Amino acid sequence: MRRFSCATLLVLAAAAQAQVTDTGTYLQRMDADGDGKVSVEEYVQWMLYAFDRMDRNGDGVLSADELPGGKGRPITREQQRQTIVERFHKQDANGDGFLSAKELSAPPR
C-alpha cells in the first residue's frame, strides 16, 4: 500500500505546530520531558499532530477527501504511526533510541 500522506503529514506537523527557526528550538519543542533528546514516543506524538488535524471526522482514517489534493489511498492512524516509527529509527543514526539535534537536522536516511 502506498503511503502517500506520510511526507505531507511530516511537513504539516512541523509547520502546523510551531514556527521553528533552528534545530535546537525544534528539539526543545518535541522534547516533552526536557531531557535534551527526543524519544520515539515524543517523535510520534509530535508527528501525529498533523494527522489528527486532518482527520476531520475523527474516525482514525484519512480518506481521500481529507488528504491534500483530495486524492490518495486511505491511511489509518496506526499505519501512519508505524511509518513515523520507521522514520524515527532511520534518523536514529547511532541507534541509541533517541534523536539528538544533529540527528533531527540530518537529511532523511
Topology:
Blueprint lengths: L4 H13 L5 H8 L7 E2 H15 L6 E2 L12 E2 H15 L6 E2 L1 H5 L4
Antiparallel strand pairs: 1-4, 2-3
Helix pairs in contact: 1-3, 3-4
Query: Order of strands in the sheet with the most strands?
Result: 1-4
Distance between the termini: 21 Å
Gyration radius (Cα, Å) is: 14 Å
**Which consecutive residue ranges, at least 5 long each, have pLDDT under 50?**
1-5, 14-19
Shape: elongated
The biggest beta sheet is recorded as: 2 strands, antiparallel
What series of H and E elements makes up the topology?
A: HHEHEEHEH
Q: What share of the residues lie within helices?
A: 40-55%
Overall average residue pLDDT: 84
Tell me the number of helical segments per DSSP (H or I, 4 or more residues long): 5
What structural class should be given to the helix and strand makeup?
mainly alpha
How much strand content do the residues show? 5-15%
Number of strands: 4
Please provide a written account of the structure.
The chain is mainly alpha-helical and 109 residues long. It is 51% helix and 7% strand. The chain has five helices and four strands; from the N terminus they run ααβαββαβα. The protein has helices at 5-17, 23-30, 40-54, 77-91, 101-105; strands spanning 38-39, 61-62, 75-76, 98-99. A two-stranded antiparallel sheet has the order 1-4. The longest helix is centred in the middle third of the chain and has 15 residues, at 40-54. The model is unreliable at 1-5 and 14-19 (pLDDT under 50).
